[in-house]
Amino acid sequence: MKIVLASNNQDKLREVREILSGTDFEIISQKEAGIHTEPEETGTTFEENARIKAKAAMLASGLPAVSDDSGICINALGSCPGVYSSRFLSDFSYPEKCERIMKLLEGATDRGAHYAAAAVIVFPDGRELSAIGVCEGEIAFEAKGSGGFGYDPIFYLPEYGRTMAEMTEDEKNAISHRGRAFRELAKKLV
Ligand code: IMP
Asked: Which of 72, 73, 80 to mutate to test the pocket of ligand 1 (most atoms within 8 A of CB)?
């Protein structure tokens, strides 16, 4: 089944394609579906935003559309930036954002954080399915690794002794919020 991924984020597209490889779902990008606009993310939860993006892509393409809305929630920052993760410190590059987060956490006793992702699929007949995935970790004291994207160099996984950016793509997909959400969604779809 052809499904549009309602995102222009190439990193997400690569990860979702890899996560769903081996299933009957063929993920095509928004661009491939001829969609050149993105709706405003006005929701206050990952699930609301994922639904907004999936619905817009489904209406624009006439195809089933799936969306991932995700972010990093940091305990010491009251769970921020959360749904605002991509808009947080938007004038800065990700290495700069990572440095700033580590600076904000200087002296913090709780370095706990989690990644969260909501995956929502919307069909042209109005049916809808959703799934949530979470990955627990900590904010590292030093950025490390070159894999993944975004905040991965400072997202430390204590049980692996490495940051997410030091994991291989397969290792990340096996434990990530996105991997968990999309595998759960694929189960529900079958
Ligand atoms: P969205 O495209 O509105 O869902 O924003 C997701 C944002 O959350 C990304 O742009 C990153 O800032 C952050 N994020 C989500 N998932 C990951 C991940 O797997 N690694 C690193 N950063 C992530």
From this structure: 72
Per-residue pLDDT reduced to its tens digit, 28-48: 999 999 999 889 999 999 999
Active site residue 69: yes
Chain segment 103-135, per-residue pLDDT in tens: 999 999 999 999 999 999 999 999 999 999 999
Atom of ligand 1 nearest to the CA of 15: 19
Q: Which two tokens stand for residue 124?
A: 């042209």
Number of independent structural domains in the chain = 1
Q: Which domain holds residue 11?
A: 2-189
Q: Which residues of 144-157 are buried (b: 16+ CB within 10 A; e: fewer)?
A: ebebbbbbbbbbbb
Spacing of C-alpha 83 from chain mean position: 10
What is the residue whose two structure tokens read 């995935």? 133
CATH number at residue 157: 3.90.950.10
Residue 148 CB–ligand 1 contact under 6 Å:
yes
